[in-house]
Amino acid sequence: MGLASTTSYKVVLPFYGYAMISFLVATLLLLAHTDIVHENNFNPYTLTITHIMALGWGTMIILGASHQLLPVLIEGKLDSDLLAYLTFVCTAIGIPILAVGFYQFQFNWVLQTGAVLVNLGILFYIINVFRSIIRSKKAEVHAWYMAAASLWLFSTTILGLILVFNFSYTLLPANSVSYLSVHAHLGIIGWFLMLVIGVASRLIPLFLISKYSSNQRLWEIFILINSSLISFIVIRFLNISTYFYYIPAALSLVAIGLFGKYCRKAYWVRIRKNVDEQVKTSLLSIVQMAIPILVLLVVLMLVPLGKHLNLIILYGFCIFFGWISAIILGMTFKTLPFIVWNKVYSKRAHGTKTPAPKELFNEKVYKVMIILYLLGYLTFVVGILFMNDYILKTGALALVISAVLYVYNTSITLFHKI
What is the pTM of this model? Predict the structure, then answer.
């Protein structure tokens, strides 16, 4: 299918291993600190959990998968394995240092060191992406999604670096907290939404064995997402009425709607009639994409009035524990087994009986994991809405168990041997 014969597994697999541990750590911290829903969102525990989910979980697994997928999108090779290794080493060291700094709530050399290392890792990634695209014979629209997303990611981490140093040195005209919304949405819209749609629009039809494709629709979505983010930044820095924020929110909602229609068309013309659980989970994540935008619309109406500040926590939770996690949980067990299968069996495939890639992980464990994940996610959402600690603990516990099952299934896949 093309995924297993591109970048060396030695480059890709460490990212998957790192991400699975990060997911477990984040859910454990969430269970330990469910009281964050009662506090201002700028507190050590919210910052720590958010950055572990955004960087250690979401970004690391996407970096690993994109090193594998980029050569497929450009019909060429990854420019440099060395740059990929450097990306992993710098980010893998920088993220826990950053998390410790946030957890201690000390904006000193610890936090600064972590931020510098993360930025170095992302810089190596950007260089690798653009050199690969420039040297390729063909770059599809999906590759440009990846290129644009990588630039937005670097913008996110650079601004984060500046904000960290701004606590100690006066680098910006205002305090760092006032720029957090820009920092967050550069990552959420520019990196995650852009990259997820760019990659999923290629992988979902591929896994469904669907011939549907529409470059025009994908370019329309591309323009809408970038317009949404740019308009948000302009509105934020012009410091005009909060009502104008409905414009970028509406643009993002339209982009998600068009992407949903794109996937629905791919689904209806698919050749494979029996859709497996992993693709179903990924399709569910598309629906979950719209939930944070709808929450944001409510936030725009109520938060300026000083009401229901817990909705800001709900907004972030629906993003990182919602659609980002859902698509990762689905796509992990569509991409990782092929990579590991290629590592173990590629030279033995001819004339030798080998297991199918889907046999490298436990399907029953996967189904239980998804049920617990959905129960935990929905329960925690209810807990946030009703500000009930018992409901929050129940939801967080279900998420922890689902993370343990994810670690188990990912581990038996990563360490599979003949």
Answer: 0.94
